[in-house]
Design the sequence.
């Protein structure tokens, strides 16, 4: 598990002055990784680190003279735009590079002159998926979401018997993962009403799901499970994740094998990967409610009980087309905290590999919808509107049960604690576009 060191010092300041702004999501204490190129160019994608309102181009950084042989060797895969290759090297290499970059970006660093020309304003950067994702598994760790949704269909027994014993998940579709800013096309699907045969039509109950995504660093060999004490060493970092859902399609198709076309049409990720090291100051104890069964031994570990949870404040914001035309900003719909997840990330890694499944660098694990325990903390419209029965009213008088064309959904996340520097994830945003017309080939 990542430990605290001088890179977390809240007093650290950077010669990149925008990083010292208290409102910045990317102070020197963060240093997340992303893949970018200058907007409008056809340049090759490069790996960069966010610092303030700038991107530090690691290809240019690696070309500067003065690095030790070990520092240059750690920069090599990043200079080749291979974040997956760097992720595979594990936590020791990641922490060492973090220390190097932190020293180089601090106020008074001798590297300021050499690295100033390696900066690109984020406003001039186009972002891509931060790494290659070979496999994507979506879990169901949000017990408050699971309970709220379960009550819609099973008021007397909302949680299925396995929920508190098994980290439930399903295999998603990595080909339809998209980076923030990539618009979402309303999907078609089979929809069944009570009094009619199913119809193939655009979804009328399009929804978002507020999730956290974990990216795997080093993998494991096929047939070799990852034990709980080692699970954290296989995590590289976290992103925000919007698991878009067509609720009307989902209701008709999900039995007996679970979600399919209701989920795989798009999943949006935030572009910056916040490393496990940056999150170290915000770890929290993992605690089960009194009376709940303890995890089975293969999902239990002393370190996980002491530090397995992560306190990340999560929010959903909405800007409708009418709001955008009038110049009105997005409004916040809800807020929750990742600390309330029923299973930790280490438990997800241990369970996923417990049957010998081989995880690989860049594999993505979705947390499931992160709702809070209080009224109004639902991480989806399905919860906030009680299955579409109680529309929410926006400040401008518009109402929503589910998403309409032109709606922009923005997920935001940040970590803060007294005496520490606040860090953020950057926006995870997409705008709903109208469904395409049916072609003659369908």
Sequence:
């Amino acid at each position: 598990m990542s430990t605290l060191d001088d890179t977390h010092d809240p007093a650290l300041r950077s010669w990149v002055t925008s990083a010292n702004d208290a409102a910045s999501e990317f102070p020197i204490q963060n240093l997340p990784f992303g893949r970018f190129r200058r907007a409008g160019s056809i340049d090759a994608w490069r790996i960069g680190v966010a610092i303030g309102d700038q991107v530090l181009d690691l290809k240019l950084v690696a070309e500067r003279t003065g690095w030790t042989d070990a520092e240059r060797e750690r920069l090599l895969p990043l200079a080749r735009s291979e974040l997956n290759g760097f992720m595979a090297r594990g936590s020791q290499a990641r922490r060492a590079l973090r220390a190097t970059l932190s020293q180089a970006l601090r106020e008074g660093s001798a590297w300021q002159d050499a690295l100033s020309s390696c900066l690109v304003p984020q406003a001039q950067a186009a972002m891509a998926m931060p790494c290659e994702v070979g496999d994507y598994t979506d879990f169901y760790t949000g017990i408050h979401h699971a309970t709220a949704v379960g009550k819609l269909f099973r008021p007397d027994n909302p949680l299925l018997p396995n929920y508190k014993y098994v980290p439930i998940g399903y295999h998603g579709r990595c080909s339809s993962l998209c980076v923030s800013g990539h618009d979402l096309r309303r999907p078609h699907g089979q929809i069944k009403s009570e009094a009619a045969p199913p119809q193939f039509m655009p979804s009328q109950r399009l929804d978002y799901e507020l999730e956290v995504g974990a990216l795997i660093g080093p993998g494991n060999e096929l047939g070799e499970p990852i034990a709980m004490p080692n699970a954290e060493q296989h995590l590289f970092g976290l992103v925000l994740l919007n698991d878009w859902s067509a609720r009307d399609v989902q209701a008709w198709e999900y039995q007996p094998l679970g979600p399919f076309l209701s989920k795989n049409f798009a999943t949006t990720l935030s572009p910056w990967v916040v490393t496990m090291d940056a999150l170290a100051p915000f770890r929290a104890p993992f605690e089960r409610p009194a009376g709940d069964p303890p995890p089975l031994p293969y999902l239990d570990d002393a370190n996980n009980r002491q530090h397995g949870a992560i306190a990340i404040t999560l929010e959903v914001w909405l800007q409708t087309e009418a709001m955008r035309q009038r110049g009105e900003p997005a409004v916040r719909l809800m807020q929750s905290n990742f600390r309330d997840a029923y299973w930790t990330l280490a438990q997800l890694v241990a369970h996923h590999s417990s049957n010998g499944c081989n995880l690989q660098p860049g594999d993505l694990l979705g947390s499931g919808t992160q709702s809070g325990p209080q009224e109004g903390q639902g991480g989806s419209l399905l919860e906030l509107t009680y299955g579409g029965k109680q529309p929410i009213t926006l400040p401008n008088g518009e109402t929503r049960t589910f998403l309409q064309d032109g709606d922009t959904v923005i997920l935001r996340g940040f970590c803060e604690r007294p005496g520490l520097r606040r860090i953020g994830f950057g926006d995870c945003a997409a705008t709903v576009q109208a469904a395409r017309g049916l072609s003659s080939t369908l």
